[in-house]
Design goal:
Elements: H1 2-15, H2 19-26, E1 44-50, H3 58-68, E2 73-76, H4 78-83, H5 85-94, E3 97-100, H6 114-130, E4 138-139, H7 148-156, E5 160-161, E6 166-167, H8 177-185, E7 192-197, H9 216-225, E8 229-230, H10 233-240
Parallel strand pairs: 1-2, 1-7, 1-8, 2-3, 4-5, 6-7
The structure holds zinc ion.
Length: 241
């Protein structure tokens, strides 16, 4: 029954032509499907990095964060964690927070059963545990996709769903870091959750949007000059409570 409903809703989304409505429902700040974390409060920002870890990009990014004494939150993909658990261990040593970004970077709205959604989340939790981390407390659904079934799966597992305030569009891979930083910073305000990508979601060769993380040092320097304090998602939630 649930599978049938999900098939019907997936077909409806694909075929209805109500694309504008779909876009509005999928906006990161929409609360149509229940409470998600979109921002915190106070003169703080949370830097978050999605789709890693990535052997080429993430260690360099960790160097930048370490030099700047900034703790970030990494929404990792389980299959990428399995490939490079050592990078996750370094994140943990550095005091960064690990969040769940599913096992295969699946679009949860298009998984047809509660079991399939649960498996995506649980497998990523297992990969994080096997790398030496504690189970993640936060889930960021790939593509920002969440609906009742996805949110319910998160809630049953005690995971809070984290969206974002500031994110880059599809800038070309060669775009100068200064341009990327400017675009991102234009979307930042008190309590912002910033997303950048440091990985390829565990599909080597695709590259993903790994280039975005090269702008991290500029983003950090400019936000620091504006007096922002950098917090992990857990710290932001405590603050915002
Ligand atoms: Zn992603």
């Amino acid at each position: 029954m649930i599978a049938a409903l999900r098939i019907a809703s997936a077909v409806a989304i694909l075929a209805s032509g109500f694309f504008a409505l779909y876009e509005a429902i999928e906006a990161p700040s929409t609360q149509v499907f229940g409470g998600t974390l979109v921002h915190g409060s106070g003169h703080v920002v949370a830097l978050t990095f999605d789709d890693g870890p990535n052997a080429r990009t993430t260690p360099k990014l960790l160097d930048v964060l370490e030099r700047a004494h900034v703790r970030a939150t990494f929404f990792v993909v389980g299959r990428a964690v399995l490939r490079r658990p050592d990078i996750v261990r370094r994140m943990l040593r550095d005091g960064d927070e690990i969040g769940n970004h599913t096992q295969t970077h699946a679009h949860l709205n298009f998984l047809l059963t509660q079991k399939a959604i649960g498996n995506e989340i649980d497998a990523a939790q297992s990969a994080i545990l096997a790398a030496g981390g504690r189970p993640a407390r936060y889930l960021r659904p790939p593509f920002g996709a969440r609906d009742f079934a996805a949110l319910d799966a998160a809630r049953r597992r005690g995971l809070r769903v984290v969206m974002w305030t500031a994110m880059l569009g599809d800038e070309p891979a060669g775009a100068p870091s200064g341009d990327l930083a400017r675009q991102l910073l234009g979307q930042v305000h008190d309590g912002a959750i910033i997303v950048m990508h440091d990985g390829d979601a565990g599909r080597p060769g695709l590259g993903g949007r790994t280039y975005e993380s090269a702008a991290a040092n500029i983003v950090i320097a400019r936000l620091r000059a504006q007096g922002y304090r950098f917090v992990t998602i857990s710290q932001m939630v405590q603050h915002h409570a």
